[in-house]
Amino acid sequence: MPKRNDIKSILVIGSGPIVIGQACEFDYSGTQACKALKEEGYKVILVNSNPATIMTDPDFSHRTYVEPLTTEVLEKIIVNEKPDALLPTIGGQTALNLAMSLDELGILKKYNVELIGASVESINKAEKREKFKQAMEKIGLRVPKSIIVNNLEQGLNDISKIGFPAILRPSFTLGGTGGSISYNEKDFESLLKSALDSSPVSEVQIDESIVGWKEYELEVVRDKNDNVIIICSIENFDPMGIHTGDSITVAPAQTLTDKQYQELRNYSIDIIREIGVDTGGSNIQFGVNPANGDVVVIEMNPRVSRSSALASKATGYPIAKIAAKLAIGYTLDELPNDITRDTPASFEPTLDYVVVKIPRFTFEKFPQTQAELGTQMKSVGEVMSIGSNFKEALGKALRSLETDTFGFDDFTIDRNLVLEILNSNNPKKLWFLANAFRLGMSVDEIFDITKIDKWFLNNIQEIMAIEKELIDEEINIDGILNAKKNGISDKFIAYLKKCDEDEIRDFRMKNKIEPTFKMVDTCAAEFEAFTPYLYSTYQDEDESNPDKLKKIMILGGGPNRIGQGIEFDYCCVHASFALKEDGFQTIMVNCNPETVSTDYDTSDKLYFEPLTIEDTLSIINKENPDGIIVHFGGQTPLKLSLDIESSGGKIIGTSPDSIDLAEDRERFNKLMKELSVRQPDSMIAKSSDDAILKSSKLGFPIIVRPSYVLGGRAMEIVYSEKDLERYLNEAVKVSNERPVLMDRFLNDAKEVDVDAISDGKRVTICGILEHIEEAGIHSGDSTMVLPPHTLSNSILNEIKDKTRDIALKIKVKGFLNIQYAIKDEKLYIIEVNPRASRTIPFISKAIGVPLAKLSARVMAGKTLDELEMPDDFKIDHYCVKESVFPFIKFPNVDTILGPEMKSTGEVMGIDKDLKAAFAKAQIAAGNKLPLSGTAFISVKDDDKNKIVDVARKLIKLGFNLITTSGTNDFLNKNELKSNIVKKVKDGSPNIIDLIKDNKIDLVINTTLSSKEILESFSIRRTSLVKQIPYFTTLSGAIAGVDAIEYMIKDNIKVKPLQDYF
Question: What are the distances in angstroms from CA 341 to CA 7, 331, 512, 853, 1016?
Fold first, then answer.
């Protein structure tokens, strides 16, 4: 059957900001879907609040709404655009939940919008726990014994039917949010309350525990003619009990017998038919009892999921693209396989290699919470690797993580520590399996403790045997070749042999021990592949076929993490698009399966490889590119730049020496003095005693940080010598090799981010972003406004002049990001980054100009004049960037912001009116600003004068005020009435009691000293749990109350990006 002609326009809902459980895999799937629908001739209307995505580029849809993802906003877009259909299956749980809400509110029926991709009935059947259970029982499949509860009392009464341990699974949530394992009655009540609060429909399924069982996933696609194919089987390395997003996974499944696989395959086909998904993909999860082979069905996602992205990258099969085309009426046998071109999409992919995914965690950002995994997802990103066998793929994945690991290198001989980690769900458990073998533990002993399948344990034991041979024997050809075939890195071999990595590489090259490159072709080489999607391995035949075309290699950003996320992938993708358009062959190198950069058709060639010097040089030696771009993937490729250059690689754009000049504090300070640019007083300390001594000369407050940071890691503001001593003892180890940088902190200064492009002769100022919050909060966490709204013309002109001077003096060719602070109308420089920054996608959307494309062209040799670039850009609307945080996932973590970055993603508010843009940004970030009710105010002494106008405005808008005694006294002196509430330390009833009893609708709480921060922690944490909007800076509170005023007096309006320019 051909595509449907009765629908002309389709509304696509994106997934919103990057959060734990819903990351950039939905940008990848959304981009694929929008491209597929557009090429079929449909009018594509997209709504997504995340400006850092490729899918929100105006090129990928006809009408692009960067607006909050709420039913109210979606109804306005539906009224404006009158779509015929809505596709909700490629925007994660967010899009699915919104589609269901639109249906329940009668909005789809009212405007005659058809749901495509999945029906309301099939979504309900899969997502509502009781209905899913009944559907499985109907087809003779077992689910874990369970009860469904909708309130606390019901759960407490019925838990005896399940017993302990019990698994709590809230309905309609993402990333296992609110999920947990309860081991006894003592913790059950609080965990159930949290789970009920997390479910938008207040529904929780409580399952019998099958912790320790093996877990498998099958990615399934079905069309309207009932053709069903299995794209990929995925096996969890970790047994049940850890969220699949946090588990190491392997594809294809390694430990199933053929009979077991066929069983799961048949069950999957039965399930997708029973649930009724008949135009797209689904992910189905199973638990298998290792003792007797019993199978239970865990859950089914009736949409493109996180695992779909992994399965797509593992097989080369474009699930999201195919799902979009099935949704408009095609069948699998009518669609071609893009990679082979000779086979239809109804052919099941076949793998002749092994894929390993390892999650990336950032527990170091949240030291107050225990590094322990469970049923609620905690990882912020992941890496994927491909090898000829499991051991090779595992080794490549380990060195892809960028956690300073290069193999099984977390050595310890402490047996008690090893046993403690093996008995836990610590994310470092994988490394401690190796330590267990080094201590002489057997496979059986380790299995009894961990329940990790013996097949995996045997493989790790074999790696340990190779490690022992490397230690015991002299370096020899057979030993090194065997190590490389089993995934062991040059750096780890060098570590074992106590020599430099270069020596191992030189030995390999001299003895022709070099990797070959194989193609991912979906069909185990049975058919010719036309899409060069490659991985390295140590075999004989090479399939990379490098040619003599003019080519540029782009190094990606590696795994997502806090401090380096989707924004950098956006820049890499744009570089590839632009250089392809200009006639270059583009080569992408990356190891992140969630991204658009690792889609098979983004670049001319894709190498799915770790971003280490070993792996990168292997590709450079094979391809011999005319230029290499290291400036778009964040710190990951920048760290490789000097080694690449010294090995003969040709880096284009800003030189590694210029990058080093900006990073080297002493060289940079000298240059700033030459250019007469003010800097906060600063010093470098090379020991703790040195730091204490120098702090007295600088004066407090001081901002301190290690000299090797990303995303403000271990950066802190200290207000006293006692604070500094604690920091030096707890946060860092100071030495000559790792000095601490100390800057006088400019209290209450205004911070500004500037992005520019230089061609070496001219500089274009792309955007000047004014931070809402005062200095001291990491720029990645700050709320930002474009264009600036409070800066004087003289300051703006000085910013532009100094930016141009610095860019030309450093010899920047491409992007430059500078952070400034303004105090008492004086401009200070904070730092310079001669690379793409995380604000580039936001500015690009705000001004309607694809900046990363233009920067890539400048790096490849074009001038700003040739590109007709102006000196700066002017817009007549406002854009506000707001950050999104993962605090709810990490118990005991304070929500107060500082110089260390904590956010996982961002949203954008865009409007002609600044207050409206800020309101949109808050709504999009999940802060439901109240339009009436009670506001609690407690502010530090420095803020009391400025809080008066905020309090007056809240009263005028009809709010009641509750304050602590100090704030109350100050407001009374200014003739403003508020009611006093006790602080937590003063007993009950206090502010926490009021928040818990839903008697507070807005919280404004600013603090200064560590004592104040500690005392008010419970206010912020309880507000977070109760989903009450809170502001921890005065400037944020002022903007928030202005936004509330706008929302009371006016309606939020929606407009696509295309209508702003």
Answer: 28, 16, 35, 30, 62
